Amino acid sequence: MRALSFLRHVALAEAVSYLLLLGVAMPLKYFAGQPLAVRVIGMIHGVLFLLLCWALLQAWINRLSAKRCLTVFAISFVPIVPFFFDRRIRRWETE
């Protein structure tokens, strides 16, 4: 299912951008006085989050259950969890 594969890749990219925002950009802003990093990485993260929402909508249209879509949406707010959840989404592709 192409929609799930796209969802997996977008979710991982969004998770990486979230970690970069929290682990690199925020410390640069508050400890080194470099607010530009938050602007740039924050914008990238925002675009990827919107792309994740669009990918979730596409997956739902392609018959992924609402419960699974809401689960993926909820885990996107916890920085490291999407990396562990990727294996489960891979299994959904084969169902």
Distance between the termini: 9 Å
Number of distinct helices: 4
Low-confidence spans: none
Mean pLDDT: 93
Oligomeric state: single chain
- Biggest beta sheet attributes: none
Q: Which structural category do the helix and sheet elements fall into?
A: mainly alpha
Please indicate the percent range of residues in DSSP E strands (runs of 2 or more). Answer: under 5%
User: What is the strand tally?
Assistant: 0
**What gyration radius follows from the Cα positions, in whole Å?**
15 Å
Order of helices and strands: HHHH
The outline comes out as elongated
Query: Helix share of residues?
Result: over 70%
Q: What are the SSEs and their pairings?
A:
Elements (H helix, E strand, L loop, with lengths): L1 H31 L3 H26 L4 H10 L5 H14 L1
Helix pairs in contact: 1-2, 1-4, 2-3
Features:
95 residues; mainly alpha
Describe the structure in your own words.
- The protein has 95 residues and is mainly α.
- It has one domain.
- It is built from four helices and no strands.
- The protein has helices at residues 2-32, 36-61, 66-75, 81-94.
- Helix 1 packs antiparallel against helix 2 (36-61), helix 1 (2-32) runs antiparallel to helix 4 and helix 2 runs antiparallel to helix 3.
- The longest helix is centred in the first third of the chain and has 31 residues, at 2-32.
- The termini are close together.
- 23% of the residues are buried.
- The model has no long low-confidence stretch (mean pLDDT 93).
